[in-house]
Amino acid sequence: MTDAQDTAADTSLRTPGGAPPDDGGTSAAGAPDPSPSPTPIPLLEPREGIPPVIADETALAEVIAAFAAGSGPVAVDAERASGYRYGQRAYLVQLRREGAGTALIDPVACPDLSGLGEALSGVEWVLHAATQDLPCLREIGMLPTALFDTELAGRLCGFPRVGLGAMVEGVLGFVLEKGHSAVDWSTRPLPEPWLRYAALDVELLVDLRDALEKELDRQGKLEWARQEFAAIVAAPPPEPRKDPWRRTSGMHKVRRRRQLAVVRELWQARDRIAQRRDVSPGKVLSDAAIVEAALSMPSQVHALSALNGFGHRVGRRQLEQWQAAVDRARALPESHLPQPGQPVTGPPPPRAWADKDPAAAARLSAARAGVSALAEQLNLPQENLIAPDSVRRVCWEPPAGSDADGVAAALAGYGARPWQVELVTPVLVTALAAKVP
Question: Which residue stretches does the UniProt record annotate as biased composition, category Pro residues (predicted)?
Answer without folding.
Answer: 33-43
